[in-house]
Specification:
Length: about 375
Amino acid sequence: MSPPSPTLAARLQRTVRQDVQSMHAYAIQPSAGFVKLDAMENPFRLPPELQQALGERLAAVAINRYPGARQNDLVAALAAHAQLPAGCKLMLGNGSDELIDLLSVACDVPPGGTPDGRSPVVLAPLPGFVMYEMSAKLRGLRFAGVPLTADFQLDEAAMLDAIATHRPALTYIAYPNNPTANLWDDAVIDRIVGAVGAQQGFVVFDEAYQPFASRTWMQRMALPGNEHVLVLRTMSKFGLAGVRLGYLCGAAALIDEIDKVRPPYNVSVLNAEAALFALEHADEYARQAAVLRSERARLQAALREMPGLHVYPSEANMILVRVADSKRIFEGLKARGVLVKHIAGLHPLLANCLRLTVGAPPENDLMIQALTESLRESQR
């Protein structure tokens, strides 16, 4: 990062928010030349015949026009694909990141309008997805993080205490969690959902990894007493990370209010058309997800056999592992051409942890070999 000139530095000091100046930008690792297993992407491309069909389809799109009816078509197609319950609606986002931000915008009640006269609170377990906290703070909301237990389960007592103390406007429950990859005890979640409802807040189930998980809140959000529950999903793990498309589901009256802060053309016509094409070929993406779930099981079995490594349960397309020296193992993997995510610095509970994306079978073979060799080297 280049330092500013003295003149520009003075201008920045005067004009740009101090909290922004003290922040770090979202870090993306250079990945050219590596087996890329650091970002939970679907490793599979479309078969050649579908690539050609998609290219022809996109070539016919009227990119000289603003997105319009095709956004409505995509909403309808996603509602059918997700089996959206009766009485619920769905809104689109430029990735789920934008929807997280729009939720912060919609719930940013001015100081004086909250029970304690202060800015609203966004609450989430930690470690968790960094955008919950970042979005809250950038939009002027307060953030309250509640540490998980040592084995990455929800700390029910601490969560309920935080809800009673802060009366959060938004409580995020990543389902499964990122970066720990686990689902949580539904009985505990039920009590958290009830507590947030009693405090007049909203619960957002972030189901980014739904194609790989065994449970969902999509139907449960429509049950009596759950009108304050929202379900957030992304097409990124479905296989469209480059398309940048997310969607938020909830009670129709609630989505109608949140949708008021959405920019009118936030999803491009090309992105909408690509997503519609993917939904028409959902069977291909379902096949890919099945392969990744099978590879996850194979990879977990191999990891459990490695001395000096602890592997955690996963219901996502990533696996969390802990080693004695994560920096050394991370560098050992890189030296062997395999790029994973070193997350030890994100939270104290993640000390010496690495996050491994589940890749295609040949990629997983290379990671197993590189990890075995790196562990053996570290034990000399």
